[in-house]
Write a structure and sequence with these properties.
CATH architecture of the largest domain: 3-Layer(aba) Sandwich
Number of domains: 3
Number of helices: 24
CATH superfamily of the largest domain: Thiamin diphosphate (ThDP)-binding fold, Pyr/PP domains
Number of strands: 22
CATH class of the largest domain: Alpha Beta
CATH topology of the largest domain: Rossmann fold
Structural class: alpha/beta
Length: 611
């Protein structure tokens, strides 16, 4: 057996470089890195040696660069996954939130935090978290709960089994999610005689699990027996590359489609079978169909509470759930009829078995009325209107300023709800909203990751001032890398979405808006100046018309362009939507809370979490 002498870190990088997806692309195309003690000597030297064959990108914040890596994978429909490495201690722990985001959203990312010395000779080292009862614990154990595969590399030869397991997890449609390989810093630098065969190129094919014959027959029977079925398209439709298959299936069998946050753009917004977004942030058309449907056909969705209106949306007493999902865990939720299979394969198999069967279409008027409501919400305000614009009106300006190839990126606050209702997604993957974890601070880093994945398409990040303040440093990274993104900052002076929720549950406006938080001096943040200081072209506009003019300038710009506009913190789109279960205090001295609790109990009566 031929061997080659390398450090464990060099072997790690060489192995990862040799892995390919079925398109012949690198399965892991490069590495985001912030170096510190714990990874700078071992992995740092190995990554430097790889050079442009395995590029290393420098971020400004560990969480943000992990978000960029995750967004890249999502934009690539999980065909590729980036590596992210950090130092031990705080550098590593800064990635835990990103790991949770990837875990919730079923998105692959390879996290390689440095770890303490395996030999323990210098213990306790700088930044080491010591467990008084367990000498094997380090800060990286925090990743266990939010990793699909976790390992701690304490000997070089452990990589011979750990790395193939990691790649198998990253490339598996059912298992994929964050992989954490905590890499002890002394082990990274150790030499070992590696089998040359370990570094032979390998192709990782994406499985397309076929449906079980019995599950397929049961699913066909349910669809044939349904008088008013409804498809709910989730992110699995996009990841499976099943958008055309979904369109053909819906057309062939007269089954309307509604879209989750993850599934939006599965079907063009103007297709007559697309009844809009579903659930708490849903279209009135889709929700009206959902209320009366007798078969909910979930395709690639995990039935999050925003999708189901906290399980109060589907009001037909006879309704059943058919869940088509590559993950058995998701397919079995809420006593569903399970069809465990790849989305594209499942739809093709169902269509053959249904043999021309057609359901009864809902009234087209539902859809027409909703689209009219959308136009009213996003219209440019009258020139005589001196009030601050709503989020919806800003969304309208962005929509009108971009072509159908543009990708809108968002994550948390009120904007995802408005975008889910109002954004007109014409092409697959033109809508990139992280709402599984609803993680503030994802937006700008996510936009950078999307631009890396799809550099030929315009990427527009819509972000509130609250999220901007949490994580904005990757604007500087986008400028440094020459990866232009457009960032529209909607400044409503605080956490306006949660402020609205606070008031809707009977609370006073408290500690959410800047003006109602404890302060000695009023906040006067100049977001345009701040973004400009990071190297972006930046400007502030005072109207929707001026925003559209600025967006035209941004499109012609060659560097990242940030546009700031003040918006109304209270205005929201009244049309559409559905109840969301947010517990209201049972005991309060305030009449508003008592009234909200009474309404809460009434809404709870419509909840049907399982049959």
């Amino acid at each position: 057996m031929k061997t080659i002498r390398l450090t464990a870190a060099q072997a790690f990088v060489r192995y990862v470089m040799a892995q390919r997806n079925e398109e012949g692309e690198p399965l892991v195309p490069g590495c985001w890195a912030i170096f510190g003690h714990g990874n700078v000597a071992g992995l740092g030297e190995a990554l430097h040696g790889a050079g442009d064959d395995f590029p290393t990108w420098r971020g400004h914040n560990e969480q943000s660069m992990a978000h960029a890596a995750i967004a890249y994978s999502k934009a690539k429909n999980r065909h590729q996954a980036m590596m992210v490495t950090t130092s031990i201690g705080p550098g590593a722990l800064n990635m835990v939130t990103a790991a949770a985001l990837a875990h919730v959203n079923r998105l692959p990312v390879l996290l390689v935090p440095g770890d303490v010395f395996a030999n323990r000779a210098p213990d306790p080292v700088l930044q080491q978290v010591e467990d008084f009862d367990d000498g094997t614990v380090s800060a990286n154990d925090c990743f266990r709960l939010v990793s699909r595969y976790f390992d701690r590399i304490q000997r070089p030869e452990q990589l011979l089994s750990a790395l193939p397991r990691a790649m198998a997890t990253l490339s598996d449609p059912a298992l994929c999610g964050p992989v954490t390989l905590a890499f002890c810093q002394d082990v990274q630098a150790e030499g070992f005689d590696w089998p040359e065969s370990f570094f032979a190129p390998k192709i990782w094919y994406r499985r397309r699990p076929m449906p079980d014959a019995r599950e397929l027959e049961r699913a066909v029977k349910a669809i044939r027996g349904a008088k008013a079925p409804l498809i709910i398209a989730g992110g699995g439709v996009l990841y499976s590359g099943a958008t055309e298959t979904l369109r053909n299936f819906a057309e062939s069998h007269n089954i309307p489609v509604a879209e989750t946050q993850g599934g939006k753009s599965s079907l063009s917004w103007d297709h007559p079978m697309n009844f809009g977004s579903i659930g708490v942030t849903g279209a009135s058309s889709a929700n009206a169909v959902a209320e009366t449907c007798d078969l909910v056909i979930g395709i690639g969705t995990r039935f999050q509470d925003f999708t189901t209106g906290s399980w109060a949306l589907f009001k037909n007493p006879a309704r059943q759930i058919l869940s088509v999902n590559v993950v058995a865990y998701d397919a079995a939720k809420h006593n569903a009829i399970s069809l465990v299979a790849d989305a594209r394969v499942a739809l093709e198999a169902l269509s053959v078995k249904l043999d021309g069967h057609k359901a009864r279409l809902p009234l087209a008027k539902l859809r027409d009325t909703w689209l009219a409501d959308v136009e009213a919400a996003i219209a440019t305000p009258a020139s005589k209107d001196n009030s601050l614009p709503s989020d919806a009106q800003v969304i309208g300006a962005v929509q009108r300023s971009m072509d159908e190839n543009a990708i809108v990126v968002c994550a948390a606050g009120g904007l995802p709800g408005e975008l889910h209702k109002l954004w007109k997604a014409s092409k697959a993957n033109s809508y990139h909203v992280e709402y599984g974890f609803s993680c503030m601070g994802y937006e700008i880093a996510g936009g950078l990751g999307v631009k890396m994945a799809l550099p030929a398409r315009e990427v527009v990040v819509m972000v509130g001032d609250g999220s901007y303040m949490m994580a904005n440093s990757e604007i500087a990274t986008s400028v440094m890398l020459g990866l232009k993104i457009i960032v529209v900052v909607l400044d409503n002076r605080g956490f306006a979405c949660i402020n609205r929720l606070q008031m809707a549950t009977g609370g006073e406006s408290f500690n959410n808006l800047l003006d109602t938080a404890r302060h000695k001096n009023p906040s006067t943040i100049d977001f345009a100046a701040h973004a400009g200081a990071m190297g972006a072209t930046a400007e502030k506009v005072d109207s929707v018309e001026a925003l559209e003019e600025a967006l035209a300038r941004a499109r012609s710009s060659e560097r990242s362009h940030v546009i700031v506009i003040d918006t109304d913190p209270l205005a929201t789109t009244g049309a559409g939507g559905n109840w969301w279960d947010v517990a209201v205090p049972e005991v309060s001295v305030r009449a508003e809370v008592k009234e909200a609790h009474a309404d809460y109990l009434m809404q709870k009566k419509g909840q049907r979490p399982a049959d």
